[in-house]
Write a structure and sequence with these properties.
heterodimer, A: alpha/beta, 2-enoyl-CoA Hydratase, Chain A, domain 1, 2 domains, 8-stranded mixed β-sheet, 14 helices, globular, B: alpha/beta, two-stranded antiparallel ribbon, binds zinc ion
Chain lengths: 327, 280
């Protein structure tokens, strides 16, 4: 963990140095000679910054990706929604029991068309984290998402799903209200929904909680997001191979192949969206710009396919995963 | 997600070396081995239902000699090259005589043809990886082709961790196949047996047309011990059982194993359109 704290601290120091110098530049009393000196200094520091980023990102481990995906400053679903769409009308409630703030859903305009948006939402500070249940959705969240996706199907809107959850809520109340059924019903509906679906794993794609909103025609993930069947720490606790030791999570992360590239190669996602240098949290606007371009490109392609063909192809993609042998 | 490790419960009761007697896991009474299978592996003294292997399940459910297994040779390709995984698989293969945690084929039950699958908890905790997912889908496709019901006995600790993201994808794959059955109008019946949790409970097992559960089976999204450990809470007694899921509307019928077979026959008679045609 200290590797990232150290990395973030170094970069923050560099950022502060640059800000100080920029303030100096803005001062009216500064001489022309001093001004060019300061400019040279800034350029030099920026170079140092790039070097730090390059150094660290040239040999990222799977565990680094886990920590980046969970980084407290990483943009969340509502950050992406705010940056990508000019408007967002949020819709609430599952029409059965309640409203789950761990999943947001609503309608948004995108280049002249209406999009139905769903996504897990984490919280930024202590209070919001609790309100959002750390992005762990309850059955109501999945059912709200399903309701809005059905609405999209009826009205002919494409669906965009942002995925960012450590796991689905698993405590007793979620069990009583059928969390397993809520996730399964979502996958069932999404596997045949008669409208284009694009999913973007922007942070943590945590097991059933993630795939419950990630069945799509085109599944993308950000370069440092993770998509995993189990948190690597839990995997290390359960398996003898890691001595049942949670501290061996980094090894489990490696064994689980938690990198976007490997996830792509295994057929779990269709595209990896590169992040700005240093990760999405270093440049949330830049990250959102890349996500927006990728979403538009995917939707334009999917919209040109007749719905029946689209749904057939979606099923074929899910069904034809081959990771077995027959002798 | 696979939190439940198999116990040494393979033969349906605790093994007592070389004897004709085994000991009930629940009440500790001795059971006379030749009677155990006649009793459907249910304790004569306390009614405890022992876990069944896939083979035992087939033996007590399918009409005698009617089961034809498909895809018995299918093996995982170990897509992640996961440390120690192949060795564990070979151990289970040698001990259990299966290549993965699900056996499927076609059989008749009281003369009614069904596409049939049984999961085996003794094989890697009944966890679902690429092979379980593919076999389930083939069983579903077989029921669509032949226009016969699909009957699945589900017990599982969840997704197969050692297949990583590939195992997670099986949740979508199997659930999507259930959607295909729905469109083809072939019925899908699932029986929850002890224990059923996580990735299998939260995928195809939750979207069957008819859900039956064997009494007192552990059934839950997360295992109760896992939750108690993770959230440092104490769960009320009886949570995460077949009865609890029934009470909350997730299960159609909870039955003892003794009542199960006649119930299945009644249901299959109702949902098998072919039977009428065959009877003519
Ligand atoms: Zn007993």
């Amino acid at each position: 963990m200290s590797r990232w704290l150290d990395f973030d601290r170094r970069l923050r120091e560099v950022d502060e140095d640059i800000q100080k110098l920029e303030r100096l530049l803005a001062a009216p009393s500064i001489s022309e000679e001093r001004r060019s000196q300061v400019r040279a200094q800034i350029a030099e520091i920026r170079q140092r910054e790039e070097q730090i980023v390059r150094e660290v990102f040239s040999h990222l481990t799977a565990w680094d990706n886990v920590l980046l995906a969970r980084h407290a400053d990483r943009p969340y679903t509502l950050d992406y929604i705010g940056a990508i769409f000019d408007d967002f009308v949020e819709l609430h409630g599952d029409r059965r029991f309640g409203d789950d703030p761990a999943i947001v859903a609503g309608l948004a305009p995108l280049e002249g068309r209406t999009i139905a948006v769903v996504g897990h939402q984490k919280g930024r500070d202590v209070k919001e984290r609790q309100f959002r249940n750390f992005g762990s959705a309850r059955p109501e969240g999945y059912r709200k998402a399903r309701r809005v996706m059905r609405l999209a199907e009826r009205l002919g809107y494409p669906v965009v799903s942002f995925v960012d959850t450590p796991a689905a809520e698993s405590r007793l109340e979620a069990e009583e209200r059928g969390i397993a059924n809520a996730i399964a019903e979502n996958m069932l509906v999404m596997s045949s929904l008669a409208t284009p679906i694009v999913a973007v794993i922007v942070g943590e794609g945590g097991s059933g909680g993630a795939i419950g909103t990630a069945v799509a025609d085109h599944v993308m993930m950000l370069e440092h997001a993770i998509y995993s069947v189990i948190p690597p720490e839990s995997c290390a606790v359960i398996l003898e191979a890691f001595g049942r030791d949670p501290k061996r999570g980094p090894e489990a992360a490696e064994a689980l192949r938690l990198s976007a590239q490997r996830t792509l190669e295994l057929g779990a996602v269709d595209e990896v969206i590169p992040e700005p240098p240093g990760g999405a949290h270093r440049d949330p606007g830049g990250a959102a710009e890349r996500v927006k371009k990728a979403i538009i490109k995917a939707i334009q392609r999917l919209e040109s396919i007749p719905t029946e063909t689209l749904v057939t192809a979606r099923y074929a993609k899910i069904r034809n995963l081959r990771h077995y042998e027959e002798q | 997600m696979s939190q439940h490790r198999p116990t040494d419960n393979r033969s349906g009761a605790e093994a007592v070396p070389e004897g004709l007697w085994t000991k009930c896991r629940q009440c500790g009474n001795m059971l006379y081995q030749p009677e155990v299978s006649d009793d459907l592996y249910v304790c004569r003294h306390c009614g405890h239902h022992s876990r069944l292997t896939a083979r035992q399940r087939i033996a007590i459910t399918a009409d005698e000699g009617s089961f034809r297994e498909h895809d018995s040779a299918m093996r995982t390709s170990d897509p992640l090259d996961f440390p120690g995984y192949l060795e564990k698989l070979r151990e289970d293969e040698a001990q259990i005589g299966l290549r993965d945690a699900l056996v499927w084929g076609e059989c008749t039950i009281d003369g009614i043809p069904v596409s049939f699958a049984a999961m085996d908890f003794s094989f890697r905790g009944g966890s679902m990886g690429a092979v379980v997912g593919e076999k389930f889908v083939r069983a579903a496709e077989h029921s669509i082709e032949r226009r016969i019901p699909l009957l699945v006995f589900a017990c599982s600790g969840g997704a197969r961790m050692q297949e990583g993201i590939v195992s997670l994808l099986q949740m979508a794959k199997t659930t999507a196949a259930v959607g295909q059955m729905g469109r083809a109008a072939v019925p899908f019946i699932v029986v929850y047996t002890d224990p059923l949790t996580a990735g299998v409970f939260a995928s195809f097992a939750s979207v069957a047309d008819i859900v039956i559960a064997e009494q007192q089976s552990l059934v839950g999204f997360a295992g109760p011990r896992v939750i108690e450990r993770a959230f440092k809470i104490k769960l009320p007694p009886g949570s995460h059982t077949a009865e609890f899921q029934f009470e909350h509307g997730m299960v159609d019928i909870v039955v003892s194993r003794r009542e199960l077979q006649p119930l299945l026959v009644r249901i299959l008679r109702l949902v098998s359109p072919r039977r009428e045609a065959d009877a003519e």
